[in-house]
Amino acid sequence: MKMRRYSEVDVFSEEAYRGNALAVVHDADGLSAEEMQRFATWTNLSETTFILAPSVPQADYRVRIFSAREELPFAGHPTLGSAKAWLEAGGSPRSGGMLVQECAAGLIPVRVADGRIAFEAPPLTRYGPVDEMLVHRVATILGISRGKIIDASWLVNGPQWIGVRLSSAREVLGLRPDPGKAGDLEIGVVGPYGPGEESQFEVRAFIGEDPVWEDPVTGSLNAGLARWMIDTGAAANHYVASQGTVLGRQGRVHVSLNDGAIWVGGHVTSCVEGSVRL
């Protein structure tokens, strides 16, 4: 074991402790996957990342992303939080305000502008209708009738999200799902606010068989929802989504479509700096 730099950042919130926390271990080369998983489980956060030297010349750094139970090829709030932690640790991107993160899903462009950090969403690896029997099961898990679900789609970009659209943000906020029925499903729910509201959508993310049943603010889910809703005309090319409201958080996710690419971003606030023995 040795002492390694350690950070905790709050992602998707301009105010500390109102977004989604991320643990970041710097200079993690030499750690095994088992050691990383053990530490990620111990932090009891939704995700922990480990920053390593890149293995390809195009990348500024490499990151491995672990939930409390498994390694993920990609996740959104860990991408933004790792970028913030890497920059604050003295990292310098090769191309000005754009940096490139290497992860198991490939190379992810990340940009810094207007006080926010945003990632270019990787392509969805599964994107399409959900079997009707599964939609009925999802409705049961969410505690609503099948008729309340306007549409559903697979939105897989690392996590195996099933996206669900309801008719309003109020319906999303009123959900009281049953985690005991979820099994290993990962369900993301979205509904629109009315005109004149600060945010255009409310989002909630439910992760079966996970110690963190409801995720406070979720970049990968919002990336998939953005692709789906913009493609189907349910959302404009630029919008803001709220997430974490029922958990007392104030997550704000800024989404934009630029030259065919979905960008997902928000503020990232540093909260903890120190070292960890690993």
TrEMBL record:
InterPro entries with a match to the protein in the record: Phenazine_PhzF-like
Source domain of life: Bacteria
A GO cellular component annotation in the UniProt record: cytoplasm
MF term (GO), any: isomerase activity
Any single Pfam family the record assigns to this protein: PhzC-PhzF
PANTHER family per UniProt: ANTISENSE-ENHANCING SEQUENCE 1, PHENAZINE BIOSYNTHESIS PROTEIN
Protein name, entry field: Phenazine biosynthesis protein PhzF
Biological classification of the source: Bacteria, Bacillati, Actinomycetota, Actinomycetes, Micrococcales
